Amino acid sequence: MTFEEKKREYAKLLVNAGLSIRKGQKLYLTCPLEVADFAKLVIKEAYLAGASNVIVKWVDDEIARMKYDYAPIEVFENFPEWEALEKNTLAKDDTAFMRIVGEDPEALKGVDANKIKAGQKAAYVALRDYYKLQSTMGFKWNVSAVPSKAWASKVFPDIDVDEAVSRLWEAVFGTVRIGEGDSVKLWMDHAAKLKEKYTILNNWQLKELHYKNSLGTDFTVGLVENHRWEGGADKDPVDGRPFFANMPTEEVFTMPHRLKAEGVLCSSLPLCYEGDLIEDFKLVFKNGEVVDYDAKKGKDQLKLLLEGDEGSRHLGECALVPFDSPVAKQGILFLETLFDENAACHFALGNCYETNLIGGPEMSEEELIAHGGNISLNHVDFMVGTKDLEITGITKDGEQVTVFKNGTWAF
Amino acid sequence: MTFEEKKREYAKLLVNAGLSIRKGQKLYLTCPLEVADFAKLVIKEAYLAGASNVIVKWVDDEIARMKYDYAPIEVFENFPEWEALEKNTLAKDDTAFMRIVGEDPEALKGVDANKIKAGQKAAYVALRDYYKLQSTMGFKWNVSAVPSKAWASKVFPDIDVDEAVSRLWEAVFGTVRIGEGDSVKLWMDHAAKLKEKYTILNNWQLKELHYKNSLGTDFTVGLVENHRWEGGADKDPVDGRPFFANMPTEEVFTMPHRLKAEGVLCSSLPLCYEGDLIEDFKLVFKNGEVVDYDAKKGKDQLKLLLEGDEGSRHLGECALVPFDSPVAKQGILFLETLFDENAACHFALGNCYETNLIGGPEMSEEELIAHGGNISLNHVDFMVGTKDLEITGITKDGEQVTVFKNGTWAF
């Protein structure tokens, strides 16, 4: 396949597997200006798949940055009511949402954190209906990435920018199984394999997981009762056909109990948080809460994350990923969670996913918390998986089962 | 000035003279994706001028075209309520609106006219508050142009596209007085000169104008009683400072009486209507209405225009422009009304401007019509001015005054 053919195949994959666009359905596409040419391929494929309308919301790092630098905080505190009306209405009206990421991972470096927080908080309130439906898969959504120059130069700082963009494109293609045949079929096979794993885990209903590796991780996390492991495809709420909220996705994940985490977790990959890298860090947990932490680089940024709100110091997601996943095999740090979280086992600090608890989507916040779920404005993944990671599960009867051995699935 | 300096000067001109952005004011910018780099210059200048927020609405010919080609007509019939809420709200809330045009003049060629009409009609209803304030200068707005590749290749079909874009940029700079010194000051001087002309015309309160030239034009148009000639700058509704709704603008214009037009008007420049060129056409008027017409090229398109609605067969604007204006001096057909209308005397078929009648903005549609105003979904300018055009005015007392001689102002 030529480069142009791969791009077209990728656009088709996003439309026909990522979102499984149906005839008459609307597509809401959020995309960086810089990759408008790729967006046009997606738009074309969406119409060919029968979309009745494609609504595009363009984003741009430089313009966003100017706003952060010059606009007063009131602008961030007041989420536009029309934008809320648009997204909340479309979310309830058979619209699929696609977001293409891939801009500068350091775009927000040095921005007034109060403005960022104010914007997030205002969006959280204004888009409550939208977020609620998103977190419960009440509509189809998909996040994927397309290389920008700024992103590629950060991933490959030592080579020419155009060459860096080409290499990052090839890496992205590798992670999403483009160039290996019919990509839609490959994704359906992939989803079936992930389903095998989470079905076994769901039947086990493990009480807790022990993590141990040579980095220094020695950690136990408790899972909520009636947790659900998920991974790969979700189901179209209308016709049940599969869609993929993330592309790539290699993880099988569930809900940790917010008050049950003990011991030391060591990072295995750097974490890019609001434009700054946090490297070689460790978190010490007691009763589910981070009570101590350290980092060789970016400790202040780690502090900022942990002090975001109370829920930012508790876990919201526990995810299993083999050390040799197609993402890990690219052998690069993507500096973008969408990829890096699929290169290694990880946890998230912050908000949990309601769908990881049976009955969760129908619960109030209070009920969710009572069941061990975590609530936060943050949801930040950090990687802990290594080639020598061992994960042992403890069943309700106290028996041990090996979940991960030598960094990958033991079953 | 280098090319980059000229672009920056142009961005400054649009922000500081075109819209006279005040501290704390919002800017709503509509801009083609292709010229995002120029938009960023404008956004930066707007923030430097004190704008509190810049909201950008991106447009793109190819994406719009895909929508016309694939989306069902219902999509065009239903104007999104959030978009109406946004524009209607912002229009009442101290926002200045800038629109950058300059895409492919033939972008809509071959599109289903019913979809275009449906979209225009839906917008007209949904954005009534916005349009009402726009037509009465209740908020500041500005339309300018930036060359796209498609536009430049149509203007200069025989040269390389990059060279065409450069040449069109230089032509645009020439029309907006960039590269001749302090452009904001040049525009204030220009506005003062246009004011001299329309002040004299307003004092005369001519009953009618006779047009005659060697193309075959022999035409009389009646002006409404208490008409106002306008041109150049309008006034910020808050602080009275000048702004320019169009850049370039060379015209002084007023309201013809919808029932008072007699004789033959011959076009002096081609007219680009919804992507198709209408060339060498003439219109025959009786009692204000087009009763006959012909065109060497594009007669079907002319028919479509005239049959748009009843108001499309009557005049809504009468504008005077010297044959040697800075736009005309570029010696090219811009294929974009914003420019071509400033190269020659012209009329518009369709909707009138309420501000061209004393008390007009406060009138109902019925009152406006009773005073001779014209109502239509269309407002299409067509050029009639030539180097040998003579325009004679008739005062209420029946005296003759020479308005234009040898294609330019006689006073």
What do you see in this structure?
- The structure is a homodimer of 411-residue chains.
- In chain A, strands 5, 6, 11, 12, 13, 14, 18, 19 and 20 form a nine-stranded antiparallel β-sheet that branches. In chain A, strands 7-10-15-16-17 form a five-stranded antiparallel β-sheet, with helices on one face.
- In chain A, a hairpin with a 5-residue loop joins strand 18 (390-394) and strand 19 (400-405).
- Chain A is globular and about 55 Å long.
- Chain A is α+β, with helices and mostly antiparallel strands and 411 residues long.
- Chain A starts with a helix and ends with a strand.
- Chain A has helices at residues 3-18, 36-48, 61-70, 73-77, 81-91, 113-126, 128-135, 149-155, 161-175, 183-204, 299-306, 326-329, 337-340, 365-370; strands spanning 26-32, 53-59, 95-101, 141-145, 208-212, 218-223, 230-231, 234-235, 242-243, 252-254, 256-266, 271-273, 276-286, 289-297, 315-320, 346-350, 379-383, 390-394, 400-405, 408-409.
- The first copy, chain A, contains 14 helices and 20 strands.
- Chain A is 35% helix and 27% strand.
- At the A-B interface, helix 2, strand 2, helix 3 and helix 5 of A face helix 2, strand 2, helix 3 and helix 5 of B.
